[in-house]
Design brief:
alpha+beta, six-stranded antiparallel sheet
């Protein structure tokens, strides 16, 4: 794991380029606190901040090949580098280092851009090919590692985080109003769009080639499912479970490869417990596990964490997270997410990563991805109930099933069948709609747009964010089973852009911690896509086939637990303890008028309501969304303006 950055194009002298690369690299020090380096050539350059995990003594970057015709800057890990190295050595390739970085260089020399097809890992890398005068860039299949780029004065600049691009003269931190609308619909912008106007993100599973002909971007991998007519079980369930466990065990084993100790997050839920159980045999010095605990019963899972610690015998530590901790760290959270968010959930993970670093660790396994890959989220069950209700729209009993889905939302138990049906859109929506599964979520989130300012509404007039999602669906999407359609939407438009980004990479790398995700091994993802829907979601039992596969690994109380989604207190976090000064300042009439994005009168009323206490999703999402947007403006737009003024003053002096 590292921070990469660079440029392509003529327009800078060598000295000017080196100075810029150093400034850009300095902004990414948190991503790579161990080492740094720069490389410049005629028309191209790299900067690098390194978090050393594999090849500690000889994996420095940017790394050239033996004759200097290639140079790479690489962020991430190639987990099958051992096997790839053996095959390359069998072909006569000679290695100078023990790093996985050099494996990519040799593989590129052998195969060119097709080398990505053989890589099993979480990666973003850029290779400068001097002979072809070409920059080749690739991002991993699932979008674990980030990559952003912008064009300025005929040159391409790129980096792992946008804050590095803001060091480039002329690059501004202006908000993209359409990206903000997407945040208030999907929880994150849809790549290539970012919250920064004029800055793009390379989507997951995509390649970029930059040369004298310009920029070419193409997709090399996508999640795919069989036609719904072909998903009937052709294999025995026990055989599927056996193969699943073997794949998952191998995915875990290769993610334990490192020249430093590897620990694991343990939430107490099914997925992290599986990860820890599989990882323990490969942790020769014993497995370190880490958790977050909460002071609110609806969020805390510490009894289950302790049960797993006892069952596995891990060396465990936890960080307590209360309202004061979340509110105190939240401005830093937004500086690292680099985009507004509508949930506080990243904040506890920021605190957890800091704790892991303080404990002397650099690498942790986590259970992310299991819910997307094996249909674990409530939204999948909810969609099934909504389709069930649509077949008998006048039923009074069918909508009552929604209460069973969300036992952790006590307000639902008070709702009438009619209210439940109306809230979830049961019976009055087109079941052939490609976005049918996610319409209620999009609608609930978008309700917070009621706080948008008149000017922002005018700018967005006629814009429908869901059209951008519809335009990105694959051609065969309509032939898939409804569960698979829902899985695709969840994986492509939430996992990469919010969970692996705002809750994942950005929070862990804020403290130089690398997260690894066995459930997102592309072999396992592709295998699971072919598993019949009924084996994944069996009645109301989510992840049925996964539970069967790991039944012998976990205590029954863990293996049979109903999914409890990871959440943190939202607006309550800012008022249950000491209210931070920045809340009132950013919700002031003056501050809201300055950004011009929200209605000051409505926002001030929302603040007063949240101070009294609110449990509604809309108000919580709106409050956190407004606060995080205001913090984003302070951290980036205002800071960039002030830095620009300082530079002009320095030049005048």
């Amino acid at each position: 794991m590292c921070g990469i950055l660079g440029y392509f194009g003529d327009g800078m002298a060598a000295g000017q380029a080196a100075a810029l690369l150093r400034r850009m690299a300095g902004s990414l020090l948190h991503r790579g606190p161990d080492e740094g380096g720069i490389f410049t050539d005629d028309g191209a350059g790299f900067g690098h901040r390194r978090l050393s995990i594999v090849g500690l003594a000889d994996g420095q970057q940017p790394m050239p090949n033996s004759d200097g015709s290639l140079c790479i800057s690489f962020n991430g890990e190639i987990f099958n580098y051992v096997e790839l190295r053996r095959s390359l050595e069998a072909k006569g390739r000679r290695f100078r280092t023990s790093s996985d970085t050099e494996v990519i260089l040799h593989l590129y020399e052998e195969m060119g851009p097709s080398c990505v097809d053989l890589l099993n890992g979480d990666f973003v890398f850029a290779i400068w090919d001097r002979n072809l005068r070409r920059m080749f860039i690739a991002r991993d299949r699932m979008g674990v590692r980030p990559f952003f780029y912008t064009q300025r004065d005929g040159m391409l600049f790129f980096a792992s985080e946008i804050k590095a691009l803001l060091e480039v003269p002329g690059v501004k931190a202006d908000i993209d109003p359409f990206a903000l609308d997407q945040v208030f619909t999907f929880w994150a912008p849809v790549p290539p769009r970012t919250i920064f106007k004029g800055v793009s993100e390379l989507p997951a599973g995509h390649l970029m080639i930059v040369d004298g002909n310009g920029i070419s971007v193409r997709q090399y991998w996508d999640l795919s499912f069989p036609d719904k007519a072909d998903v009937e079980p052709a294999r025995r369930e026990e055989d599927v479970a056996e193969e699943l466990l073997a794949l998952l065990d191998d995915a875990t084993a290769i993610r334990m490869r490192a020249d430093v100790p590897v620990g694991a997050y343990l939430s107490g839920g099914l997925d992290s417990s599986i990860t820890c159980a599989l990882a323990k045999p490969y942790a020769t010095a014993g497995l370190r596990t880490f958790s977050v605990t909460f002071d609110t019963a609806e969020h805390d899972e510490s009894p289950f964490q302790q049960e797993m610690v006892k069952a596995l015998g891990t060396h465990h530590s936890a960080v307590a997270c209360g309202p004061d901790e979340i509110a105190g760290i939240f401005p830093s959270v937004i500086e690292h997410t680099e985009k507004p968010i509508i949930r506080t959930a990243p904040a506890p993970l920021h605190l957890l990563a800091r704790h892991v670093r303080e404990e002397g660790m650099k690498v942790v396994l986590t259970g992310e991805g299991a819910d997307e890959v094996f249909a674990g989220y409530d939204i999948f069950k909810e969609t099934r109930v909504r389709r069930f209700c649509s077949r008998q729209t006048g039923s009074k009993r069918r909508p009552l099933l929604f209460r069973r889905l969300y036992p952790y939302l006590p307000g639902l138990s008070q709702q009438t069948p009619e209210s439940l049906a109306a809230f979830f859109g049961a019976g009055n929506e087109d079941v052939s709609d490609p976005l049918f599964s996610h319409r209620p979520r999009y609608r609930s989130t978008a309700a917070a747009k009621i706080f948008f300012s008149a000017d922002l509404r005018k700018t967005l007039a006629g814009y429908d964010a869901t059209e951008e999602v519809l335009a990105r669906l694959p051609a065969d999407f309509g032939r898939w089973h409804p569960l698979h359609q829902a899985q695709y939407l969840e994986t492509k438009f939430l996992l990469s852009d919010y969970i692996l980004s705002s809750q994942g990479d950005r929070m862990s790398m804020a403290h130089g911690i690398e997260g690894r995700f066995p459930f997102l091994d592309h072999r396992l993802v592709e295998f699971a896509a072919k598993i019949p829907p009924g084996m994944k979601l069996k009645g109301f039992v989510e992840k049925h086939i996964l539970r069967r596969a790991v039944a012998d690994l976990l205590p029954p109380s863990i293996g049979q637990r109903t999914k409890q989604p990871y959440r943190a207190p939202d607006s309550r976090s800012f008022f249950a303890g000491r209210e931070p000064d920045y809340v009132g300042q950013l919700f002031s009439h003056r501050a809201l008028e300055e950004t011009g994005l929200f209605n000051p009168v409505a926002a001030e009323k929302l603040l007063a309501k949240c101070r009294r206490e609110t449990d509604g999703f809309r108000d919580n999402a709106a409050f956190v969304g407004i606060l995080s947007t205001q913090l984003w403006h302070e951290a980036f737009t205002k800071r960039a303006v002030n830095q620009g003024d300082d530079r002009q003053l320095a030049a005048a002096i």
